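New to this. Explain these tokens.
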Amino acid sequence: MLRKAMPNIAIIAMTGCLPRFRGLGIATTLKIEAMKWAKRRGIEIISTWNDTANRPILTINEKLGFERQRGTVIMCKGVKS
């Protein structure tokens, strides 16, 4: 994902596959290909995010050299009618 306001940053927004294909290296391959794509275009920074409870993608991101940054706190509140 690219944004005109931040032309030197590419964002890998979603990486995933169907449950029956997990553990086959598909997500890793997708991330690597996205990184190659960004490099060919002269992108300086690649950003990604994921749920802190999603250990498999956290592990992939760490293996590929992504560094944890301070995050956004998302707050929710139920509303009864």
In short: Strands lie at 2-3, 6-12, 45-48. The chain has a mean pLDDT of 88. The chain is about 30% helix and 15% strand. Residues 62 and 68 are 8 Å apart (CA to CA).
